[in-house]
Structure formats: C-alpha cells, structure tokens
Amino acid sequence: MSGAKGFIRLEKRPKPSPLLTFLVPAMSVVLALALGAVFLAVTGYSPAKVYSTMLSGAFGSQYGISETVVKAIPLMLAGLGVAVAFRMLLWNIGAEGQLYMGAFAASWVALTFPGLSKPVLLPAMFLAGAVAGGVWGLLPALPRAYFGVNEVITSLMLNYVAIYWVDYLVYGPWKDPRGYNFPLTPPFSPSAQLPTLGQTRVHLGLVFALVAAATLYLVLRRLKWGYEIRVIGESATAARYAGMNIARNILLVMFLSGGLAGLAGMSEVSGITHRLQHGISPGYGYTAIIVAWLSKLNPIALIGVSFFLSALLVGGYSIQTSGLPAATVSMLQGAILFFVLGGDILINYRFRFGSGRAGATAVDRSARRPAVGE
Amino acid sequence: MQESMWIAILTATVTAGTPLLYAALGEVLAERAGVMNLGLEGMMLVGAMTGFSVTVRTGNPWLGLLAAMGAAGVLALVHAFLTVGLRANQVVSGLALTIFGTGLSGYLGKPMVGIPAKATFKTWALPWLGDIPVIGPVLFHHDALVYLTYLLVPAIWFFLYHTRPGMNLRAVGENPAAADAVGIDVSATRYAYVVVGGLLSGAAGAYLSLAYAPSWLENMTAGRGWIAVALVIFAMWDPVRAMLGAYLFGGVDALTFRLQALGVLIPSFFLKMLPYVFTIVVLIVSTRETLLRKSAAPGALGLTYDREGR
C-alpha cells in the first residue's frame, strides 16, 4: 500500500518544484552535518571543534582556499561527466577509472615527447587524456548499447583494472630510476605542465572545468542533441517512437562522460603532480557521483557543489591530524546523498490530505532505464 | 602441478566463493522482490567491521556474526525506506549505501586495524564425509559458515519455487500491480526481502573478517560486493546457479592468489585485474544468454511501485 496510507496521499507533480529543487539539496547538507555531529559526539569527539577545524582547514588560510579550488577542478570535470551520463539514465560509476586512464594517456604523451614546445605538448596531452577517458567510457557503453549489459557493474569493474594498470606502470616500467623506489614516474618537462595562477597551485584546469560546465549547459539547453539526451533519459519508448537512435546516443554520451573524467586525470598530472604516480586520485570519481546528484544534474549548479564537496575533502584532511580517520568524509558524503535522495520525494510529489481516490494501479515508468535499441 | 595442489586450490575456491555466495543469495531475494540493492559492498564492509569488533569484545564469533547481520540489516532498512517508502532512485540509493558504509566501517574500524582476531570460525572436518577422497577435503574440510550455505541454498530454492510466500515474493518482483490486486502487500514484501538481503550481506562480511582473512582492514571487501551483484545476473536470479557462480568466481580468486604465490612471470598487477576482467566477461556472456533464453530479470526490477501512478 505505498502512498495511500490513511488520509495522506502522494500525488506526482506535473513538473518538479523549482524552489524545492534548490532547497532540498541545501537542507540535505544541513541534516547530514547534523547527523554527523551527533555521530561525532557519540564517538567521543566535539562536533563544534571538528567542524570548525574543517572550516578553517578549507577556508582559513590562503593555502586552504587554494587547495579547495584545486580539488574542485577534478570534481567538477568528473562530476560533469557523471551528470551527462545520469541525464540519460546511464549509470556511469566508472569516472574513477576513466580519470586514471586520462592521466595515463596524458603522461604517456608528456614522457614520450618531452622536447615539444608547450603550445604543442599541452593540447596533445589534453586530447590524449580526453580520448583515453572516453575510450574507457566506451568499454562499458558498447555491451550496454548492443546487448543490454548492466553498465553499473562493468564501469565499476573497469575502475579496478585502470588503477592496477597505472600501478603496474609506476611500480614497473615507468618508475623513476632516481625516485628512491617510490611508485612514480620521472617528472614531466616544464612544457608539459599547465600554467598556474601566481604562486598558488591553482592551474589552467579550472578554466577547462568552467568552460566545460558552461558548454554542457548550453548543449543540454539549446542543441537538438541535448534535447535528445533528455528525452531518452525521461522515456526511452517515446525517444524510439520519435526515431532517435538510442544505441548511438549511449556510445556518444559515455564517450563524452569518460572524456570529461579523462580530462580530470590529465589536469591532475599536468597541473598538480607533474608526473604519474600511485593513487593520483583519492576517489574523485566516486565523489563526482555525489557532486552530480547533489547538483540535480545541472551543470551550472554543479560548479558550486564541486567547491562545496572539495571544501569537505580539504577540511577532511585537516581533521586527520587530530586522529579522525579519512573515512569521516566519505561517511558524511554518503549521509548527504541519503538525505538528498529522501528529499527527492518532496521535489517530485505533492502531499494531499483527505480521502484518497481508489487509484489505478500502475508501475511508475519514469524510473525505467532506456531499453536497448531494437 | 600435483594433485595435492589442485585439491588445495579447489578447497580455497569454496572458501573464497562463500562470502560471494552469502551476498549473492541476499541480493537474489531482494531483486526477486523488485528492489536492486547496489549497496552490497557497503553493507558487507559494515558487517565485516561489526562482526570483527563484537568478536574481539566478546570472544564469540557467533555473536559477531549476529551483530554483523544486524548492522547490515539496519543499513538495508535505510535503503528500503528510501526506495520503497520514499520512491527514491534505487541505483543512486545503493551507491549512497556503499559510500556511507565504506566511510562508517573505516571510521569505526580504525582502532581495530592490525589487531588479531580473538576468535574465528575454525575449520572442522565433517566425520565420514570429510574422509571421501578429493571431495572430502574440498567440500567438507571447512568452517560452520560454509556448511550453513549447503543448507541455505536448497532451502532458498525450495522456498522460492515451492512455497506460498516464495511465490508471493516472485509475484511482487514480476508484476507488483497484479500482486497488489490479489491482496499481497507489495511495500511490506519489498521491505522484508531487502532487509533479509542485508542480513545475508552482513553474514558475507562477517565471513571475510572472521573466517577468510581473519582480520579487519579498511576496504577489505575489495569489490566483492560488486562482484556479487554481477553474480546475481550470471545466476539468472536462481539460488542454485548463484552457488555455482560463486564457486566459479571463488576459483578465479583462489587461482590468482596461488599464481601470485608461485611467482609466475606475469606481473602481479595483471593477476590482480583478473577477477574484475573475468566479471565483465561473464556478465556480457550471461546477459546475452538471458536475452536469448528470454528468462529475463524480474519484470519490475528497479522500478518504483506507485499504486496511484499513471
């Protein structure tokens, strides 16, 4: 008896409420932090102290602010990738692996052609990173488009493969002979390094990310293709009747999605580490999923959400010195996602009081994934 | 390789397959009710950590097992509340569960990293059966949790296909509107089996930290929860096929481990990729098979049931 208990009925809104679309994620964050505070208190920490340490870690110094911006870059790029795929109900959980493959390909270019000049080398690395990430995104897209193979699992499995591949390189053939046996490659030549803003670590990747967000916003809003993605996401049946090629769109969207995550990897090695190394991402690809959902898959909102989750990450590093595990942050992230999901019902449904009509029974088709092209 | 080594690998296959089997059986039940729970990884981690922690405190692995099941069951209840009660997206809620469970187990488990297990599930060779050549050591030189699966798999099979509640369960996952029309409480059924799935994934986690490893390590499941989700598709939502599949994946795990120990020339990083690549290949093959045989997934899998929907 879902939804029809007693005198309260749920009625689907014809259009999601715009005000609540903003309020629910904001309230979710507040509630998740409140839950986190209770949890911290129960486990013997002072929530006020932990949160204020996090806040000053993320915003209290020039270094903190710069780190918050720096870590927002991969979150924004990978988050945009996840968002565009989720729009089509393509559950790309593989951003982490796509990021690693982008970093790998960009590093290959940087290490193979160190003598090239900056205006040639950087665009080549940019391209290599995007294409490698895109191809890694195509791997789960192909079986999904043609055989209907669940992309959630395949894209996730490929994360492990990509991470082990990079580990193989940095522990093996690509290891820096002068790196004291650390798992990293030799440093890139200066022409393979993205320019930075003044003395900070903020690099040109920020511009990539902002441009990507604006472009994606326009594409989804104005182009016919963006419209197609939205229609397929909302109803695969309608899309097929309208003559849209679903299989081709699955491939295109997953290539784009992986490509954006690949760019995140490229900008990390070229802008931050200046070499390929073990653990180049502390899970940006997974946090990107939260970024995407919290921003309700809106590329412009995603910019702000990226900065917020980045601040959470940076703040998370600063509380580790007081003995709190790094896992604290992923716990908070999970809680935020729970609350947003719970709040979605307020966006999509309206509560009606009074006796319910004996409604027709049906299954909510809006949750159905687009079927395989026949 | 000599015969004794093959027996050792096959024995390890059953051990490595058992946590996958527990998790997959739970997921079979939840998905049969129409609810996909991608939070297995998170629930297993919380189960592993809780089981280990309670066993360290009480010295009794059975209490650890119960606590593990309870903790994972509570997480599953959250998933059920969100997806059945509040009609949230099942995929994203499962992901949230995995992220939250990973964080929670890492947070609460931090003080226990590296400490020895106080008590574990000990290997106990069954009388008579254990003396059979080859089969004896492979199947009957294990711990109680392994033997429990030998009973659990036929029990779930019988329940699903030959009892009234089992039929109701399948109806709810196949066609909730029809089930509703004949008076089955769709929401209650879904809540119940999502929680049962959680209990079993908790047992899977406890097996890892109390029998397989036995220790606690952050992220010790290493993707096994996800492999179990793939296993359910391979098994076509059937408990007996889930058992075969679990041993198949367990076999790859055991073989990988053995090859690494032997120092085969293949770099260990490629061997470590093996289970994941294997999962992808198996998933593609079995999805095609499912399509060809038309014995597809439960009809309403992943869909919200909305009585008043259009």
- Average of per-residue pLDDT values of chain A: 88
Q: Number of helical segments of chain A?
A: 13
Q: Multimeric state of these chains?
A: heterodimer
**Largest sheet: spatial strand order of chain A:** 1-2
What is the CATH class name of chain B?
A: Mainly Alpha
Task: Describe this structure as you would to a colleague.
- The complex is a heterodimer of chains A (374) and B (310).
- Chain A is built from 13 helices and three strands.
- In chain A, strands 1-2 form a two-stranded antiparallel sheet.
- The longest helix of chain A has 30 residues, at 118-147.
- In chain A, helix 1 (18-42) packs across helix 2 (47-59), helix 4 packs across helix 10 (246-273) and helix 11 crosses helix 12 (299-320).
- In chain A, 67% of the residues lie in helices and 3% in strands.
- Chain A has one domain: ABC transporter involved in vitamin B12 uptake, BtuC, CATH 1.10.3470.
- With 310 residues, chain B is mainly alpha-helical.
- Chain B has one domain: ABC transporter involved in vitamin B12 uptake, BtuC (Orthogonal Bundle), CATH 1.10.3470.
- Helix content of chain B is 72%, strand content 2%.
- Chain B has twelve helices and three strands, in the order ααααβαβαααααααβ.
- Chains A and B meet through strand 1, helix 6, helix 11, helix 13 and strand 3 of A and helix 3, helix 4, helix 8, helix 10 and helix 12 of B.
- Strand 3 (362-363) of chain A pairs antiparallel with strand 3 (305-306) of chain B.
